[in-house]
Design brief:
The structure is a single chain. This protein is of the alpha/beta class and 275 residues long. It folds into two domains: 196 residues, Rossmann fold, CATH 3.40.50; 60 residues, rRNA adenine dimethylase, C-terminal domain (Helicase, Ruva Protein, domain 3). It is 35% helix and 18% strand. The chain has a seven-stranded mixed beta sheet. Strands 1-8 form a two-stranded antiparallel sheet.
Amino acid sequence: MGTPADLPPLRDVIRDFGLGARKSLGQHFLLDGNLTGRIARAADPLDGVNVIEIGPGPGGLTRALLASDATAVWAVEKDTRCIAALGILQSAYPGRLHILEADALDTDLTALTPAPRAIVANLPYNISTVLLLQWLRRADQFTRMVLMFQKEVADRLTAAPGSKAYGRLSVVTQWRAQVRPLFNVSKEAFTPPPKVASTVVEVIPRAEPLAPAVMTDLEKVTQAAFGQRRKMLRSSLKSLGLDPAQVGINPEARAEDLSVEEFCALARMLAERNA
């Protein structure tokens, strides 16, 4: 839809509104319009979709999303300082930007806007995995998520069985969604630069989970198994009273050897045991 030509540069917005990044909020701002545009395009198609952005800060990515074909953008921002700054964009795009001053951890995103809805965000790194797991519980409510994570976290999200990065987050995420890394982002692209590189990840919720399981049971099983990942399953799952052999899994295997489907079989066994 294009960008209004009279919008002030982001660096001026940061200066004028005193938006120095706060470490306590995990803030690292993206000011490169080419990069924010690339992130917004990665979420296409957005025509007819309501986009939710978490932690917009001064509005760099928000500008790119407003310039897209999205029906509207819903910005959830905890930092009171940023609300007035985002008002500039609200005036420039009448009726298309909705600002909610709130903590994303306490916000039901599905109550903000009607479907279809997508989440596109440069997530605050200190709560990124907590937020993702929260959204995966209602994954069927979103068409897609395009999210920025620390590269280490992105590697865990997409890791395959047998790899060093494969763990609880890999299993739960891949059980509920198809996940793929899109591109890496240098730490120098941020203001201030974080200590690590970042990766933009695409998360497409599955119409149905990869295999039958209850998420809370899957989390308990993966927590026990990966909490002692160097131990054999017969030892690491003993606290849950599970015998992997009962579902055809080698009890001498380790957590990193199991597929997502095998973890789901263990989760179902746990549910039956606790029924």
